[in-house]
Write a structure and sequence with these properties.
There is one protein chain. The chain is built from 13 helices and no strands. By secondary structure, the chain is mainly α.
Amino acid sequence: MKLIDLNAIYKQYISKAISRCKTEGSIYNYYLFNQRKTCLSHWQADDYEDFVSWFYPRLRESIDKYIDIGSSFEAFLNKIFFIASKEYKVSTVKSSVTEYSTWCARVPDLYVYEESPEYNFSSKEKIISKIIRDKNGRKNSRRILALLLKCYNYISDDFIDKVAPMIEIEKDDLKSMMENMRKIRQKKDDDIYLLKERTFRQYYRCMVYERRLAIMSKNTVVYDKMNHQLNTARKKLNKLRERLNLVRKNATNSQIAEVIGVCKGTVDSCLYKLKKSFNLN
């Protein structure tokens, strides 16, 4: 391809011998097909082509900004081209680092999925049958009911259908109790969900900072600044984790008592005795 003279192209544009569209197209072709003539001759061809396409929308503004004060149009445009390449490299590195960090965090979830073993209700039925009765052999379904409501987040409709006959409660009544508990706990559950999301976002942020830091040169201002941001982000992540660990994720005994329609002391007693009953040896 015949080498294009950028200065000649600009003179033709100024004299209105060629249109703006043709001027921009000629400059674009110059950079696209003459990588060896630019300051980016060391780049991979694919990366260079992507950059030239990214740079193209900036040509119009660059052309309009040129003022002849001793430096040629070609020198001016090459300087803009070089500065833009730095900006492009920074933006692509940030994107690749973020993508890399996100995929690293997702890798454990991308292993071959293995179906969970089918829930063996018969074995759990024996356990429930044993702890549902007190030491005198008297049946106390309220204990299991209190436990179910305590762990409402982990109880499925299928499990309710199986356990309801054992504690002598209608399936619809038990499902209604679960629904009431979820309504009572809705705001708290939403707050916990938002806290988890904040913790996850902070975790990803730390991963991105760590990856960026790994590719930076040490003993530089940028490295020190990023290292400070990483340390600050880690401290914030630890605080979020501590908050998350301290949050009560199960229903309170007062809430259980409200749903069942008994006093809190009764629920306290049921759960205390049930806890002692878990020693099945």
